[in-house]
Amino acid sequence: MMKNEIGVRRLVEFIWQTGNLHGEIFSSDNTALQGAAIHRQLQKNWDKDCIAEFDLKLPIQIGNQEYIIHGRADGVHQKNNNYDKIIEIKTSSVSFDTISDSKRNLYWAQLKVYAALLMRTCKIDHVELELIYFQTNTNKITHKKSLFTKVEAESFFTKTINILDKWIKLKQKMLLKRNNSIHKLHFPFEQYRPHQRELAAAVYKTVVLHKRLFVEAPTGTGKTISTLFPSIMALGQNKTERIFYLTAKESTRQVAEKSLLKLQKNGLYIHSITLTAKEKIIFEEERDLKDDKNPYFIGYYDRLKPALMDILQNESVITTEIIKKYAKRHLVDPFEFSLDVSLFCDIIISDYNYLFDPLVYLQRFFKDSDKDYSFLIDEAHNLVARSRAMYTAEITSAPLRTLLTKFETIHAPAPNKIRTNLKKLQRHFSKLRERLSDSKQSFLISENYYEKFLKQLQRFNSDAQIWLKQNPDHLLFQEILDYYFAIHAFIKINSFYNKTFRTKIEIDNENTVVKTFCLNPSSLLHQSLKKGKSAILFSATLSPISYYQDVLGGKKESLSYTLSSPFNIENLGIFTTPKLNVTYRFRSQNESKIIAALSAMVHAKSGNYLVFLPSYNFLKQIHTAFLCANPAFKTICQSTDMDAKAKKTFLDNFTKRPIEKVVGFAVLGGSFAEGIDLKGNSLSGAAIITVGLPAFNEETAELEHFFDQTNKNGFEYTYQLPGFNNVLQAGGRVIRGMNDTGVILLLDQRFNTARYTRYFPAHWQHYRQSYSIKQLEEQLSFFWTHVNPNF
């Protein structure tokens, strides 16, 4: 429950919901918008004595704290200066007769609570409750009425509050224990690392002052604990209500969990939860079951409260494994259970999607803006590409012919509306294809969306949703459902369409593909960040910060902070090659120079090395040439089809410290160029070949043009800076601890130009230029002798 104010609907759903869990396969967004429009339409026809959107509030005392029960009745009728009727409108596409008893009971419970609030506020002895049910696919309206006395209202409300009382007191007890533990909490390490205290102070001020902070904190700063610890201190002072720790990768979520466990050992009492994607957390035995056959769905709400009480009283740092343990014990679906548990947690660790993705964000937290939440956004450089992907959707004509053919051949009732809409949609695709053909181009990019096409998609989905609900056993159910989801995503993304969006038409294997993509979702990220009061976006590689502020929802008043590396810069050797041209045209003819530079690196000191290349094809080419020149070396290569086990095997070659040293070849920007921690002797150096520019295509060309038109440097924003971030991340694999030593070879003459050197971090500014292989060999020898006199 939210502190101070409790909404009637949330109250009723928590206290009185019973029965089965029904997986909502249809988005509630369009349903909510449609429902709001129907509400307004019905309210407009009421007589003048009926007051729409009637506000109801009642203060209550639980424990030592006052709460406001607050709701808004759809309508309250007034007669002779007295209120005699409360109206609640509900909308759905299914008939009233088919609604479950548990659902109907919830509708009436909401009306009963409204009645209790009204009767406590006004001196009336009874009131009529009217439930108006509007069936959206038929426009049929069902009216249900019931007389409710003050005695009945008091009895129902008292019973409701008595149940709530137990949960509020649990929450109060947890809050008091949490705050007391935070007041006694100390930083979990004996001393701060260099610059760590300053970072923690900056984070604390950002949370308390409700600001937005962009931080570049190099490897070794201790970013996770330096952001979590001060945020928790602010939480203990009631300066923020809840902390969301958002990451791009599972590995960083695990680091956050470990940090909380460390604080827990130091006396912290706090409830945190790590949210996991549905497909990764549900039990195998429920994966292919329908809702009405799933034992973890059947009776879910009857078992939910005991399960919640059990886990909250016995666990604090709640991981995926813990959720599954309690879900199994209480026979509840683990994914839905994790979401219900999260409402009682102080810290929520999750993927970026749960805040930023318009298709899957957590509505229970983020439906409204400006809550007192704090967002800690780890590895924020990843959010640039991720956010563009979140606001990209495409729809293809591919399923149309297949579906229409199957409707003609299968022996099952074929839905006329669905078939008609599919044919209309096919004609719209044909018109777009003709438009592309007339342009004499292989693709067509427009600043506007195609309105008639979009409306036909909406018509299809409106009818498809009704049909899918009515025909769950139809032979084509799954295929229609899959196309419905694809269209829904396309419609949803297009609802955000503004000057930063583009629509592309192209042909793929004879199918017409329409794609909506966002060039710069910064304003949309800004709106997401406004769902909280403070945000800290941090990464080891956030240079230049002005660029990331531009593209990640930074405001004019947003703050920035760049920390120096805590490591001794003399332990890292940086070498550039001003005479080595590895642009696409010259790669093959300079292959021998690349191999000579790599050979110089691996022969200078026995150790493990990584070589990063811009593509798999170039990786294979250089790997083959390297082996020919260095047949005695053990080598391993990243491949396109590596699963988690294969990736672990790749890394084990470094971390298990075998007698035989290894040279690994990996792709720049790939899974081994970021987020891996090879400390000590696990890695002696890395070579980075090319500046890592993203591939040129029609969409990146459009992106470059867009930034040029908005007074930015289009080439920098589109190609140079995203590519250079991959370079910085790859280079960051080398020095991971205070006593680590290693080298980085930047094998591309472009690294030597001012365009790049001005963006070198401070701990790279001591780079050395190697004009020849001989000079590189001498510099490497000098470096290793200097950092290790016994070398």
UniProtKB/TrEMBL annotation:
- Family matches, as Gene3D superfamilies: 1.10.275.40, 3.90.320.10, Bacterial XPD DNA helicase, FeS cluster domain (1.10.30.20), P-loop containing nucleotide triphosphate hydrolases (3.40.50.300)
Matching entries from InterPro entries are given as: ATP-dep_Helicase_C, DEAD/DEAH_box_helicase_dom, DinG/Rad3-like, Helic_SF1/SF2_ATP-bd_DinG/Rad3, Helicase-like_DEXD_c2, Helicase_ATP-bd, P-loop_NTPase, PDDEXK-like_dom_sf
Task: Give the originating organism.
Answer: Liquorilactobacillus uvarum DSM 19971
Among its keywords, does the record have Iron-sulfur?
Answer: yes
Q: Which SMART domains match?
A: DEXDc (SM00487), DEXDc2 (SM00488), HELICc2 (SM00491)
The record's section on PROSITE patterns has: 25A_SYNTH_3, HELICASE_ATP_BIND_2
Q: Outline the extent of the Helicase ATP-binding domain.
A: 182-432
| E.C. no | 5.6.2.3
What UniProt keywords are attached to this protein's entry?
A: 4Fe-4S, ATP-binding, DNA damage, DNA repair, DNA-binding, Helicase, Hydrolase, Iron, Iron-sulfur, Isomerase, Metal-binding, Nucleotide-binding
Q: What Gene Ontology molecular-function terms does this entry list? A: 4 iron, 4 sulfur cluster binding; 5'-3' DNA helicase activity; ATP binding; DNA binding; hydrolase activity, acting on acid anhydrides, in phosphorus-containing anhydrides; metal ion binding
Q: What is this protein called?
A: DNA 5'-3' helicase
Range of residues in the leader sequence = none
The cofactors named for this UniProt entry are: [4Fe-4S] cluster
Entry similarity comment:
Belongs to the helicase family. DinG subfamily.
